Amino acid sequence: MERITSQQVEHAVNEFYVGGASQLQVHQWLKQAQCAPEMWEIVWTLLEKEGSSVEVKFFSAKALHLKITNSWSDVPLDQQDNLKQKLVELIERHVAGPKVVLTRLLMCSCSFIIHCILEQQSDAVKDFLSAMVLTRSNSPTLLLQLLTLLPEETEAANCKAEQRVTLKVELRKSLGNVLELIKEILEQEMASGEVGDASVDALRCLLAWIQFGISLDVLEPVCPIVLSSVGQAATCESALEVLSAMLTEAGSCASKLPETTFRIVSKLLSVEALLDQAEQTGATDMCRSIFSALLPVGEANSKLILQWLASDEGHEKRAVAIQFITLVLRCSAAPGHFPTDEAHSDQAFGFWYNLQDALSSFSWPYSSPGDDECQRRKESCEALLAPIQRSLVEVLLRKSCYAPDYDTWADDERESFRCYRQDIGDALVQCFEALGVELVRLLEAALMAGAARLQASNGQDWAPLEAAVHAYGHVAECLCRPQCDGIVPAVLLCLPCLVSSNNRHLLCSLFTMLGALAEWLELNPEFLPAVVHVLLPALAVPELATPASLAIKAITCDCWEALQPFKDDILTHCMSAMKSGKLRSSECVRLMYPVGRMLGSLPVDATLSAYLSTCLAPLVGDVQALLGQQPTEAVRDALVVQLRMFAMLAFSLDMDTARRTTQCVSVDEDPTTALMQPQEHAAQQQQQRGLKRRIAEGGGGLEVEEPIAQNRTGQAVVLMLQQLLPTLKVVVQHWAADPNVIEAVCNLVAKTLLSLDAGSSPALLADLIVTISTMYQLNPHPAVLDLCKNLFVLYDNNNNNKNNRPLQLQHGISGSTENNNAVATSRSDANNAALTAFLSQICSSTLVAFEATQDVREHSDMLEAFLVLLSQALRKRPALVLGNAALNHGAVFQLAVLALGLPEHGVAKAAASYLVSFVDHAKDTPALYNLLVADPCSPADIGAGGGAVLVDRIVKCAASDAVRSVLPCLAEVLLTLNKRFPDLLSRLLPVAAASSSSSSSMCPGDSEKARVVFVSGVLRERSSKARMAELVVNFASACRGLMNTEYGRQTSAMLIKDASGGSGRSPNPPMILWTALSVVLGIETRAEIIRGLPCVKMLHQLLCTRPGNTYPSQAIERFIDENKALIRRMYGEFSSPAEFFSFRGKRDSGPYEEFFASDIGQNSSSPDDFHQKFTNVDEIMRVRRATSPTSGPSASGQASAPPAINTDSSRVDACQSKTEVVTPYWASNSAGKIRAIVNTQHFEQAIYQEICQTGRQTSRCQGGCSCEQKYKWHRLLAYDPDNDCAGIFMDWFLFPSCCVCRCNIS
After folding, report:
1. What are phi and psi of 1050, to 5 degrees?
2. Which of 184, 450, 536, 1281 is most buried, judging by how many CB atoms fall within 10 Å of its CB?
3. What's the confidence (pLDDT) of residue 934?
4. Which residues have a Cβ under 8 Å from the Cβ of 100 and sit 6 or more positions away?
5. pLDDT tens digits, residue range 1276-1288?
6. Order of all β-strands in the sheet with 1217-1222
């Protein structure tokens, strides 16, 4: 690059903002100009030049910052004082603005100080501050701004670990002077009575140093003046934030410095007077700010507060603890209704949860948890907390009452109140842990008082009674605990009074509570008649159908044996409610569960057949009527609902002993029962219910459940399928082109396969295979391929003889062993032949479908499902694939090789899995061997076989074609090739690597060296997956010009770790992907590693590349299948994968922020950058690609993705941001606990977030304004992997919401 001049730079910057076709070239030139040696001189010229535009000055200031940060070695030691003086003069010149330039100059000063410290100049901070004080403009605000930026720049400094330690040590030496300056400024303004921006800046500076890491005892001297600032309107919010940060930041010294913590908390409680004043004047914002500071302190130090509470009577610490807890109780008892009258009482829930957890694991210093002293102290805490807990129960009952004007509330207010009541229920369960039976007595007293008020007001004052019933429903599951033996819920004794009220809210809460009592009713079946007679009539009332159907489903799940006398009534009311046409689709589907449970309890004879025909006939008639109508969206939706109803019936109709004892397991049940044999578990449940029945089998005296024994071979589902299959064939013929119908049919068939084995009805299963094959020929759909996997599992289980018995013995048919074995062998041969033909047809239809499309990426979901199916077949039933002459192995192989380079990680992983199985079997299979190796003895044939195509594709994908997330998949295929065909790989790999090396712009830099290291390393490695992944990742980094960049090093470390399951070797194990994330998200931020998870923590939340090995997907899927009603109650309707589609967008404020937000050295200019920013979002955030929405409304009632909002193109945002929709796997909840977010194949939860992309200021947001990231609490379904008994529950999680430009009040 030729020597540049200041005129050229100024012209280029101005040209950049003009726009046009040359803007990209100008951008690249400016980035290169920033690295030029002469830029040291140019920046001074441009910054000192009068009349320069803001853009030119900002570019110059940023270039100077980059020079000082990355090219410090260019500054001679004797010129450092001159550089410092120039910086001070420039700061003085720009004191009046522009703010964006001044901030960047202050960042330059911070970088100067950091480098001086690293050069052993211990007084660097003091010297620079002295130089600023000596200037004419020695404003304290300027010093505070510099000191505020200094800790942040230190944290962001790119230096070694030992240098970072040196920096922190030296900066902390200056802490005394910083605190004195802050204290002096605050005292001066307090004394003058004019508290303004200087005090706010001082508090912000103090907050930055607290977050930098300061011991609590060092901060104690400034605590009084900060407390005094709370009383000033201008500094109240900032002072409260500082006080909270003192006691909640990591390492808040609660354990190391408990006495210091106590003294600060004691002083913090002086804000109670300010709280009294705020409540008297109705200043709800002030109340919210005070509680926002207090409550995090309590949550972070709950164990310490309990230790204060356990102090000896009369001790000052006990009084402080009681005062603090009472203040939190005031927060919960805020007057008015949430969220219309007040909006801060919900903040206290986290404290109550943490306090109860701390009490459960109470410990006393210098004593073990089990000794007498610790137990005495714990009992003292419980005694002191008991009256507070009783008051809390009364408060929660009052706060959960509906407001008189509830019907006029907006939808978002109602949703907030619904979540608030859910939190109240969770808090009451925590109170049960402390109060036990006393809580039940309190709720019963509230029930009786509410019933009296209802009668006295002639049904008008119903809210207190409804709140008591709602609370009782949340603690209902606790009634099964031993301490509640003999307690009869009072609500069951006053059912007639409650039902006669005819209040919708009250009845809905009542029915929800009855469903929660299902486990208790199982132990006390004498109360079932009254409950059933209340619930069944409500099924016909549309307003009550949802809670009534949920309750009847839960009761039939747990109490199906005791409900036998009521089976006719249950079937009649359920079928009548569904025929009425008044229920929603979800309620109709839900009611099929109790229908199936009641039918499933009948013996397999004419009785079951008659009942089943009676129930199925009207439903089949409805389907046939729909088939006779014109195909419209309404008809399609109605048809899908009918198919979902059949699927629910099949699921609940016939479950064997093992599934019956696990499908309805309560969340509080002992998880060890899942490890019992099914008969043992059934016997234990029968003993608990007093319904034990002994059946002698061969003198063994085995205890089983008689209805299950009569119907344990899937015959009920066979009867259902025989009646339904002809209609399904017609549905497939008429609606094969509609993906929603196809998915519904596949779901139905998958549910039936759960109850069948390969010998249940050979003719029926053969007919079912023909139907599936026909459906796939008419419309190749991924759901059909997933169904085929279930079919292979069904036949694989029978083929492997997992039951270890011939089929006749399974059915109780006697016969000789030879005849039984002969029949089983004959049937197995017939099954293999049918599966072979079926697999051939599926493969043929798939290949035809892909030949008809121009781009396989448009059908990546089907490609992934197809390759997964073949991979599973090769692993479980290789004979079906390898011995299938009709299967076009060559075409499938080419398709898998093509899929290796697709950006979707799932597709590449499926392709790699198939190719690994393919190569494993190629050695012993002539057809595959000939396809992979053309002629291993002829050098002329090198490159003619499929092996050459595969190796060439792997190398090209690693070099440039594929996103980096698929590199471990490529390494796995290479490792298998080197194990099975080392000679072939040794000849093909050098040729492929050389071809990639000769390609222009593919392998810049040390390409030849990288190629040699890659080839030799791969050919040597035959055992370690981690080592092979490291070779491939390093080769890819070299080819893309990322080898010596921070981005390349850190992403390589994470990819290698993922490839080895978290245990592989990594070049830099402690490093984290914050640079990679900043490239993708467009932000400058820091992150920390989360051990054991493929996640980093940033923006106050976890960001995960994938679920990881510890993600409890199977447990989540199982719980969803077993508790669909509960999930619907918490979330809503289920949707199939096609009904969910995500989008991602980017909202740019223009190229100005885009250019100046990226730093040289952090954002690489390699050809891979553009691909990383957009295609590789799946690697970092699992942001789903946009897909076309389904036509018409969803059958489940869920809305599709929101449409684009047209904005005024003449207006731009002051802060640049990116908008994304992400589906998180892991997240940290409001209590700081890591939870698994429910995001599975059939159940997705998405978060819409907008993330700041620029720094603090932009050209449109400057002066007293700055860009800030805002956050929003989301309530998501979560799962605790450490507590399977908790099941799926709702929890609060914080995610970025928007990026705003906020300004000072002045």
Report:
1. -75, -40
2. 450
3. 62
4. 54, 58, 1257, 1258, 1259, 1262
5. 888 888 776 677 8
6. 1144-1147, 1217-1222, 1247-1252
C-alpha to C-alpha distance for 42 and 373, rounded to whole angstroms:
73
> 292, 331 in Cβ contact below 8 A?
no
**Could you write out the DSSP letters of every residue in 661-687?**
HHHT--TTS-GGGGGS-HHHHHHHHHH
| 337-342 contacts, C-beta under 8 A, 24 or more apart | 337/399, 337/401, 337/403, 337/417, 338/399, 338/416, 338/417, 338/420, 339/413, 339/416, 339/417, 339/420, 340/403, 340/409, 340/413, 342/284, 342/287
Q: Is the pLDDT of residue 232 over 90?
A: no
Which of 4-13, 363-372, 493-502 has the lowest average pLDDT? Answer: 363-372
Residue 271 is predicted with a pLDDT of 86
Find out whether 59 and 106 touch, Cβ atoms under 8 Å.
no
Distance between CA atoms of 1076 and 61, rounded to whole angstroms? 25
Backbone phi and psi for residue 146, each to the nearest 5 degrees, phi listed first: -65, -45
Alpha helices in 174-235 (DSSP H): 175-192, 197-213, 216-219, 223-230
Round to whole Å and give the CA distance between 1134 and 1127: 9
- 8 A C-beta contact, residue 1042 and residue 1164: yes
Structural contact between residues 346 and 423, judged by C-beta atoms closer than 8 angstroms: yes
If you compute the radius of gyration of the chain from its CA atoms, what whole number of angstroms results? 35
**Residue-level pLDDT at 644:** 93
Q: Average the pLDDT over 488-493 and give the result.
A: 83
Burial class (CB in 10 A: 0-12, 13-18, 19+), 1173: middle
1244: alpha, beta or left, given left = phi > 0 and alpha = psi -120 to 50?
A: beta
Characterize 452-461 residue by residue with b for buried, 16 or more Cβ atoms within 10 angstroms of its Cβ, and e for exposed: eebeeeeeee
Q: Which three-class secondary structure state does DSSP give residue 581?
A: coil
Question: Pairing relation of β-strands 1247-1252 and 1217-1222?
Answer: antiparallel
Which has more pLDDT, 1106 or 267?
Answer: 267
Which residues fall within 8 angstroms of residue 195, CB to CB, at 6 or more apart? Answer: 189, 229, 232, 234, 235
Mean pLDDT computed over 788-809 = 54
SS3 1223: coil
Helices of type H across 601-703: 606-627, 633-653, 657-663, 678-689
Helix (H) or strand (E) holding 590: helix 585-600
Average pLDDT over residues 353-379: 80
The predicted-structure confidence for 527-573, as pLDDT tens digits, reads as follows 999 999 999 999 999 999 999 999 999 999 888 888 888 989 999 99
Cβ–Cβ under 8 Å, residues 350 and 292: no
CA distance 324 to 382: 16
Contacts of 361 (CB under 8 A, 6+ apart): 369
Angle 1010-1014-1015 from CA coordinates, rounded to 5°: 120
Residues 720-747: pLDDT tens digits? 888 888 999 999 988 988 989 999 999 9
Contact status, residue 396 vs residue 332, Cβ threshold 8 Å:
yes
What is the model's pLDDT at position 997?
55
Residue 811: phi, psi to the nearest 5?
-95, 5
Which residues, in sequence order, are bridge partners of residue 1247? 1222
Element (H, E) at 542: none
